[in-house]
Every structure is written in structure tokens, then in C-alpha cells.
């Protein structure tokens, strides 16, 4: 594309964090950021201390750290209160004999307790495993089994999806809710927290010790446990300052659930490491509730996702006009490609430039971004952070010149990069197959000014509403249905959700295609795996295209769907 065809929305002088990009890149050194934390002197550290306790012993002690609301609750907590509540959680876990390195899972809806517990887990040096509340039994079992979790904190409603009998390593089930609904061997969270002291010793750990395990999907195999360490806080703190642009008076709202990495790195760590007031909204999405949340708390910095912005756009300009959103001063997006049209719309109705940011579960924090002080090119993910070198590589690892499409790669290491895939060194090596580089699995190109443009996934991973779904996981569940012989799953382009899941299915003998059967199969996946992994579309086929080795060729399914040429079919079965 020619330079003069690139649309630009210029940075505005009102943005607080003005700094020259090239200059910042030249002068940047991660060790300067490291010096902001106490381990610089002691060699030991704890992210929960840096995010909460450090502020609770400073002039920020009585500052609101958390505004929480949902349809029934409405609460606020200061840094000091968060310190005490997370100490109680830490003590409760310690009393059960849980300690450094143990995996403790959280499987509950967003409530203040979720945040106390997550911080408590980190305070004792244990490794947190947050799960999305929509997960069903198979999804929960796979993650707990793989990680060897010793404890899970959940609710009476969700505990039925924790298959205890298949989890020999799971010793403690802590339930948050009505005591009457508990089984005898369950621990009641409310009582246990009430008995626990609100003073606790921090477990001082090494920067390279485990912090959190986020399970995410690839195109093959079961979900993989992406393992992050305490040192990641260096990048959380830095990007909170430079990309989120957090200032002392900001009211910050990240709409993501902690079951996904955005909900922890940017829903918990980055804002609190920066001492910001963090808004958490429970309950379901609705444009009215969301705008109400911004109006009510006077949110200044807002981090959300393209699907949400597209839904808000769909709700229309009138919905915006019913609320006072004038507090907003910085808006960001992550998770999927952000359409230029959405940026233009946001600029018109919110009077805000929506800043796209690119990163992944595996990268732990933002890497390529539109900074507050940068001109935005709608459709581009932005430019690499100071301290980050990104490039487009061919399959042999050669760096390609501008405008050539290839593998989006990042020079290793950086502070928040995953340290391993739990139990699966071979998977980890796949990302590191080209010496000195992390291969993201995304394809992109760089323009002549160093802006990166996302083109797609190189593998078959589906991105629906910003959530990553592995086709293999869905296919495996589908073939458990009595009517399904074989299944192939692809992402089908969708104007609101980015992609939706479409399943091609061949039926077993004795079953006939019908709408009822489609519904039944969809329900089966919803109830067995999770709602977001269930196909929105099913198409029955007599036969699915397969390689001679029996692998279903999703590439061909996709070509059918998009009415594209099917490409090289030399490996097709017949
Ligand atoms: O394909 C890219 C897409 O989401 C993938 C990472 O998904 P996940 O690990 O769930 O993390 C999402 C939040 C960090 C990437 O490989 N993706 C993420 N951000 C963008 C994006 N695609 C286009 N533009 C983005 N800004």
C-alpha cells in the first residue's frame, strides 16, 4: 500500500504521556524498570506485595483500590482493606498446608472474593490457576489434571463440574456460598476467612518463581498451561504506565474476566502495580450497564475488546448519548483485529481514539501497541514497545523487509514471556524453533514506518469474541456425541464476533441430519465443554476431507466455507 493511502488519526497533545518514540526506544533499559521494585535490593520479591501491600504502607493506604459492582452487590475497598483481605486468604490456604509452588485454582464468577483469593495465593508463593466460570466438566478436568492442582476455590453452583473422583491430587475444595449447600468434606470459604488473621507473612520468592498458569488453546492437543513468573511484573508495571498511561487520579476499567490473561495482567497486576483505582463489574454484558459503569465511576481509562466495541456500535449512537461518558480520556482494545470502522465510530461518538494493542497469553503482557502519544493508523496493531524487537520472518527464520507478509516474531527474551508450557517442553520448543526468536503463530507485515498489520493466524486456532478456541478440543467433544462419526471445526468470519465456530459433521450409521440433532449436538458441547466453544453453525456432510494419514483437513473445510480454491490436495485421501 502507498504511504498516502494510509489513514492516520493523529495523537493529541492532551495525552499525558508524551514522549518521543524513537528516543524512548534508544534510551530504554529493562533494568531501569526493575529498580522500581524492592527485589532490586533484597533479591527476593512478591508480586502481591508490590501490587497491594507496598501501597497499603504508603500515602495510598486509604485510596480506593477496587470499586466492585454487579446487579446485587456494590462495594469499594482501599489498598489497606485489600491487604487485609488477601492476608486472610493467604492464612486460610496456609492452614491447609498449601505453600510455595502448589497449584491452586479459582473457579468462580467475578466477585471481590475472587480477587482476595488470587492475591492470597500469590502471597504464599503458590501458583494461581484462574478458570473461566463458563467451563464445563471436561474443560475443568483437563486443566486440573494437567497441572496437578491441590486445591480449588469454587461455588455451590459450579462445584458439580469438578470431577473429584478423576482428580486424585486435588485435596481441598473450598466453596464460596451458602453453608447449607456444602458437602461434608468441602471447606466453607466464608467461615475459613472469618477465622483467619488479617496479618500474614509474605512468602518472598525469586523473580523466576511461578506466579500463574493460564490455560490456552492451540490447534492440536489439549489446552496448554502457559506458565508465568513473578518477574513479569516488570512489564506489567511498565506497560501500565506507558501503554495504559495510568496516572494517579485515573479510574481504570478493564472489562476482561480473570479466566483470560487480559483479566489478570491488565485486570489486576498492571493497574495495582501502578496504584490505580480499579473498577470491576460483575454480571453480564449489556451496553446500558457498561455505559452506566463508566458514567457512575467516572472511568478515565478503559480497556476492552473488539467484539465488545462492535456490540456497542451495534447498540447505536443513541445509547451513547443517554450517558455522560466525558470522563473517558484513554481507550484501548485487545484480543482480535480492531476494525478501522470501529475506530472511526469510537472517535466520533466517544471522542476517543481506540488504541489497539497486540499480545498473547504466552507473551504475558503487551508487546506491540498504539501508544497514547502515537498517531494511530486504523487497522494497525501499532509499534513494538521500547525494549521489544519485533520482526516478520520467513519460515527459515530470515527477517523479511517491510510490506512482506510472514511470521510475526519477537526477539527473546522479555520480562513477561512464559517460562514454560506446563508438562509439555515440546510445545514450548515449537514457539522457540527459530534461534533467538519467539514465533507467535500470527501472520503480519510491517509497513515502512514500523507499524505492524495483523493478517491472520497461521494455525487453525479460532478467535471468537476475542476468546481463543482450539478446534481439536471442540472436535474431540463432538465425536463423543452418539450421532457423530467425525467432525472438523473451523472459524467462520463473523461481523460481530470476529469468527464463529462452524462444525462440519459426518453422522454415524442410523442417524439422519435434522435441526433437532443440530441443537442437541450444540447443547452437548455447551454442557460438556463450555458455551463459548459450542458451534454456532453445523453442517452435515457424508464425508469429511482427510489426509491419507486420516487427519481432517480443516484448510479444505475453510475453503469450502469461503468458496475459495482448495489449494494443494495432494495429501487428500481420495
Ligand atoms: O491472533 C492473535 C489475537 O489473539 C491471539 C492471542 O490470544 P490470547 O492468547 O487469548 O490473548 C488475547 C489477549 C492478550 C493472538 O495470537 N490477537 C490478540 N491481540 C490482537 C490479536 N489479533 C489482532 N489484533 C490484536 N490487537
From TrEMBL:
SUPFAM superfamilies: Acetyl-CoA synthetase-like
PROSITE patterns given in the database record: AMP_BINDING
GO molecular function, one term: acetate-CoA ligase activity
InterPro entries linked: AMP-bd_C (IPR025110), AMP-bd_C_sf (IPR045851), AMP-binding_CS (IPR020845), AMP-dep_synth/lig_dom (IPR000873), ANL_N_sf (IPR042099)
The keyword Nucleotide-binding appears for this protein: yes
Keyword terms of this UniProt record: Acetylation, ATP-binding, Ligase, Membrane, Nucleotide-binding, Transmembrane, Transmembrane helix
Regions crossing the membrane: 114-132
Entry EC no(s): 6.2.1.1
Every AMP-binding enzyme C-terminal domain range: 473-551
Entry keyword annotation includes ATP-binding: yes
Chain ranges of the AMP-dependent synthetase/ligase domain: 58-421
Listed name of the protein: acetate--CoA ligase
Originating species: Paenibacillus hunanensis
